[in-house]
Amino acid sequence: MADKVLIYSRFPKTMMARFAERFDLLDTGGKPARDVFPADELSGIRALLTGGAQPLGAEAMDQFPKLGAIVCYGTGYDGIDLKAAASRNIAVGHSPGANAASVADIAMTLMLATTRRILVADQYVRSGDWAASKQSPMMRPQAGMPGRRIGVYGMGEIGRKIAARCAAFESEVGYFTRTKYDLPYQYFPSLEALADWCSVLMIAVRAGAETQHVVSADILGRLGADGYVVNISRGSVIDEKALVAALSDKTIAGAGLDVFEKEPHTPDALTALPNVVFAPHIGGHTLESHVAMQNCVLANLTAFFEGKPLPYAVKSA
Amino acid sequence: MADKVLIYSRFPKTMMARFAERFDLLDTGGKPARDVFPADELSGIRALLTGGAQPLGAEAMDQFPKLGAIVCYGTGYDGIDLKAAASRNIAVGHSPGANAASVADIAMTLMLATTRRILVADQYVRSGDWAASKQSPMMRPQAGMPGRRIGVYGMGEIGRKIAARCAAFESEVGYFTRTKYDLPYQYFPSLEALADWCSVLMIAVRAGAETQHVVSADILGRLGADGYVVNISRGSVIDEKALVAALSDKTIAGAGLDVFEKEPHTPDALTALPNVVFAPHIGGHTLESHVAMQNCVLANLTAFFEGKPLPYAVKSA
């Protein structure tokens, strides 16, 4: 009989297909598990699969007395209370690096789309305004990529891929992380210093309690009127209210956002802004990224049920 | 007294400001010169500034009996009848490479925006459909950049910059030009072979009579249902009717277009398509690109009026 795995978050069925071949999936569809499955079924659950951003604390863990493994689909695990898991001997796994290229590429897409104002450009052609020789909204040239100062906040696998791509665009690349690495980019010892220097701030830091709202009104102000912010990490890293204010009063020029504080909810004041390019958290959503993330999930679940350590365990867990 | 320069095409005044400091500009605003200036004024014109795509043949040249220099703003000069100019001892100048990075970057922007479906993504968030948990139009994951086969047609300065950028995205890069170069990319001996191999065709070839409609229904068909075409060269290189048909019946997946056959006119059947990202010929339209192009224009005009050869002369002229 196949081992049982509880699907704790809401995932499309197609993303679960490879797991269904190997395991007996109890799919909550993102609803509370107790509302979907009888208590005696839940009491036997030893492993669950979740989205790393979804809150999963001590109380939730205690619904499943036999729980031994929490496996996150994707690289993030910011929703998981790691201390609570550790104290219950629950292993936590994720998919490190599996989606790094895909996420770095959505960062590049959002940066280019925003700085080259592609939504405005597309609409000018599509509406017929260009054909009618109406005044172009693109008249004032914008700064391009060569020589542009790109500040990367976070230098994990995603940050490094963003940096490498930006360098190929002939941009200058700087970064801030707590640790200085041996990398061919300028290191800044604080986020403030990075924001003072750069014109595009790329947020690629691993999110957690200590990064909550660190991209504040002050940091945005340091980017300046020609500055942009791109976030592909987690919405929690930016103070979203401060961002709406900075974009509305032109404290900064624009933003590219794949992540938001309370997904899928986005403030109307934000989505009404013309100087933002939005994406619905699709950074890791490419064919090869899903295959790589699923490989990690399968390896983690298989190892767990064989009584082995998770090959892709969260390091601090 | 400052030397006179006829502004033959329609240019924004801001783009002419640096020239106005050095020369006496006769600005046609893109209208026929004879309608704007008296014949005796035109008869003294020795140099004109034009957009390289605007037709300028023998008859037009003969309006200006003393014409000695045609200076194109930008890299293109496909509108100029080079034989007619040569037979009249008219030098033709342009701005080689000045806008290469800017144009390569719009190619990358269009490719990423198209393949990652950023218009659809933005609209899904902006409309509130995501917040309302309506069915996502992004459900089916798309192929990303790592391992994607990018075919670059043309390996001048723009093509090389596109290739270098794509390589940084971990894509495979192939190219077709008449000449095989010593480059770290796979060479294909024909456009057909390149189109059979690649999933994104990047058109970066210098346009002219011999490239008219070479990207035909046959070439588009070879790209296949997962294929994309991006054009930042000239609209004339693609058979636009065949492109509309291929996009409409899903022969190919999508397109990113900065240039069109009859700018600024674009067929309604084209602009109605959801699987295209449009830009109004803004490839070279960045601050640093304009500065570089203006440097070439100033150097060409200054040399001409000093009786010297144009430093940025069109090579085949």
Spell out the blueprint of helices and strands.
Two copies of one chain form a homodimer.
Chain A: E1 4-7, H1 13-20, E2 24-27, H2 33-36, H3 39-42, E3 47-51, H4 58-61, E4 69-73, H5 82-87, E5 91-93, H6 100-115, H7 118-126, E6 149-153, H8 157-168, E7 172-176, E8 186-187, H9 191-197, E9 200-203, H10 217-223, E10 228-231, H11 240-248, E11 254-257, H12 268-271, E12 276-278, H13 287-305
3D structure, described in words:
The structure is a homodimer of 317-residue chains. With 317 residues, chain A is an alpha/beta fold. In chain A, helix 6 packs across helix 8 and helix 9 runs parallel beside helix 10. Chain A contains 13 helices and 12 strands. Chain A has 2 domains: 114 residues, Rossmann fold (3-Layer(aba) Sandwich), CATH 3.40.50.720; 179 residues, Rossmann fold, CATH 3.40.50. Chain A has a 7-stranded parallel beta sheet with strand order 8-7-6-9-10-11-12, sandwiched between helices. A 5-stranded parallel beta sheet of chain A has the order 2-1-3-4-5. At the A-B interface, helix 6, helix 7, helix 8 and helix 13 of A face helix 6, helix 7, helix 8 and helix 13 of B. Chains A, B: GO terms for molecular function: glyoxylate reductase (NADPH) activity; hydroxypyruvate reductase [NAD(P)H] activity; NAD binding. Chains A, B: This is 2-hydroxyacid dehydrogenase.
